[in-house]
Amino acid sequence: MTYELHYWPTIQGRGEFVRLALEDAGATYVDVARQDDGENVLMDRLHAGPHPSFAPPFLVDGERVIGQTANILLHLGPKLGLSPSDEAGRLWVNQMQLTIADLVAEAHDVHHPVGMGLYYEDQKSEAARRAVEFREQRIGKFLSWFETILSRAPEGGWLTGAAMTYADLSLFQAVEGLRYAFPHTMKRLEPRLERVVAVRDAVAVRPRIQAYLASPRRLAFSTDDIFRDYPELDPVKG
């Protein structure tokens, strides 16, 4: 089975959480918009069919078209061996994924607090104000929650214990994005997040992930993406 992932071709974005799961599992997939005429194919399929997606990413799996990152991963988890076999376990992993989605949305809204249709330069003063709360309260609150989950999980070091799930892969991506966009804040926070950092490090050395990160398939972070490195939004504190 070849999965078809539809997402914007020039950024990591929300599609990266799906890519990491597909890559770690060694699944066969096509990143459609990176193919010849792929963006046109994406746009043609975006609103087609009885269950159209609001926006990318969406995944085509045979006759099924599944939208929304967490929903895609809920679907892929059992197929790729990246979620528990029982319903309660699958719902718990999905709950963690949705919490990561909230974090990602807040990270995006730091640099676009007024409107999606405006450039960052049109809302810099509002972004600076929004960044203060995100740096000083929200990043720590989100990551401390995951630190607590890891402290309560059964032995094994992953969010659910011994078995890695797609939520661990997504936590890796969230930490990587925050390190890029808020390096000074993360440097201050990480000494209190030993378990979260350990998950990040354990994901990074998984053979397929390591190969993916070193490949051209893994795009670099940029100021066109969800996580953006604007130094004025993460100033150095003495």
Notes on the structure:
The radius of gyration is 18 Å and the shape is globular. It has a domain at 87-206: Up-down Bundle (Glutathione S-transferase Yfyf (Class Pi), Chain A, domain 2). It is built from nine helices and four strands; from the N terminus they run E-H-E-H-E-E-H-H-H-H-H-H-H. The N and C termini lie far apart (54 Å). It has a four-stranded mixed β-sheet, with helices on one face. The model has no long low-confidence stretch (mean pLDDT 96). 34% of the residues are buried. Helix 1 links the parallel strand 1 (3-6) and strand 2. It has 238 residues and is an alpha+beta fold.
Task: Walk me through the topology.
Blueprint: E1 3-6, H1 15-25, E2 29-31, H2 38-46, E3 58-61, E4 64-67, H3 69-80, H4 87-111, H5 124-152, H6 166-181, H7 183-189, H8 194-204, H9 207-213
And the CATH topology of the domain at 87-206? Glutathione S-transferase Yfyf (Class Pi), Chain A, domain 2
C-alpha Rg (nearest Å): 18 Å
Strand proportion: 5-15%
Order of the strands making up the biggest sheet: 2-1-3-4
End-to-end distance: 54 Å
- Helix count, DSSP H or I runs of 4 or more residues: 9
Envelope shape? globular
Q: Mind telling me which CATH architecture of the domain at 87-206 this is? A: Up-down Bundle
Largest sheet: 4 strands, mixed
User: What structural class is derived from the secondary structure elements?
Assistant: alpha+beta
Instruction: Flag low-confidence runs.
Output: none
Proportion in helices: 40-55%
The pLDDT mean sits at 96
